[in-house]
Amino acid sequence: MKPSNLVAIKGLSHLLQLLTCILLLTPSFSKGDRKIYIVYMGKYPKDMEITDSFHTSMVQSVLPRKNGVVSVIPNRIYNVETSRSWDFLNFPENVPRTNLESDIIVGVLDTGIWTNSSSFSDEGFGPPPQKWKGTCNNFTCNNKVIGAKYFCIGGNFEPEDIISPTDTTGHGSHYTSIAAGNPVPNANLFGLGLGTARGGVPSACIAVYKVCWTSGCRTADILAAFDAAIADGVDIISISVGSAGHRK
Ligand SMILES: *[C@@H]1O[C@H](CO)[C@@H](O)[C@H](O)[C@H]1NC(C)=O
Ligand SMILES: *[C@@H]1O[C@H](CO)[C@@H](O)[C@H](O)[C@H]1NC(C)=O
User: Fold this and answer.
1) Does the beta carbon of 162 lie inside 6 Å of ligand 2?
2) What are the per-10-residue average pLDDT scores of the chain (248 residues)?
3) Which domain holds residue 149?
4) Is residue 181 part of a domain?
5) Quick check: is 248 in a domain?
6) Whose CA is nearest to atom 6 of ligand 1?
7) How many domains is the chain built from?
């Protein structure tokens, strides 16, 4: 429950630089187990166009010799985490706001979202900002939740998973409401914690990238969602997951 667990990354240009790299998903076979690794090969060469045949020849050249490889990351599993309120961060409800805030699109990488919650009602919201290029896959969006995609490379679904951006645990809905949920007065749990639930930027739009499933959140899905979020045109990416190791 540390405030630092809500990571809002601003300055997408830095991210773009970081992610303008060649990502390869390389299957390796050991005793019949197929594992996914993320092979980082540095920045894209300038003006390079990625085609299927280029991808195939790149994979063929990397597999036997690992030439030109900067690092290889195993596809690990992370678990969802959560955060404290904005008041804890000295960011009160009556903080001065600007009109620009309604043009902000916050991309959230988590367990998905329940749009039936008042935090995500689109009452008073106009159509998505013109710059928006995202889509809603197997999901009904509204003018508050303007994008929704899901990522499960390798298809590790459990029976409890819903194969759409719909939330299954509530974690994604909870923590998306902390980032950009509408103000909801009289929120409480059986009278406890009575107050106004609200996001840091309540007038912002939300784009959901579901990367966390019953079995956890995998590196490859997180990276694919980062790529998609940047291409879709989000302004801020928020992710709140961690590995068992860092909690100890
Ligand atoms: C929204 O839908 C989910 C899943 O059906 C349900 O668990 C949740 O209680 C609903 N929330 C509201 C506010 O209706
Ligand atoms: C779409 O979502 C529903 C549940 O909301 C799921 O049962 C179905 O498999 C999904 N379809 C696709 C093509 O992913």
Assistant:
1) yes
2) 31 35 43 77 76 82 77 86 69 89 96 97 96 97 98 92 96 94 88 85 97 95 96 96 66
3) 78-243
4) yes
5) no
6) 114
7) 2
